[in-house]
Model the fold of this input.
Amino acid sequence: MTDSVLIRRPIARWTGGARIAACPRCQESVEDSLGSPQIPTMRLANQGPRRVDGNTVCVRGYCCRSCEYVLAIGPGDANVEVGSSRDRGGEPWVSIGAVFADGSKRPVVVPAGEVVP
Ligand SMILES: [Zn+2]
Done:
């Protein structure tokens, strides 16, 4: 875990009729890495530093181990109910802004418990 972690969106690739998530740089499937990779809180945008507890925060997404990108899923694609009190695992998620590798600021999804209300 370093401050050099870069965030990108995964790309969709079609293989045998199935839509799989892939790395935008090396095109490899990242489907089996779906989880909660950590990003430094310094990558968060438009948030005061007190809003997140600690130096890193989990985001809903994939990671490409070859490229060392965190591939964060947008709130519309996260397969979790953003903003609701529960998802299937019982954990609430919220949308928060982050700075991506290209300098753009886009929403990512983080566990609500990591964001101080
Ligand atoms: Zn890659």
In short: Residues 84-88 have pLDDT under 50 and may be disordered.
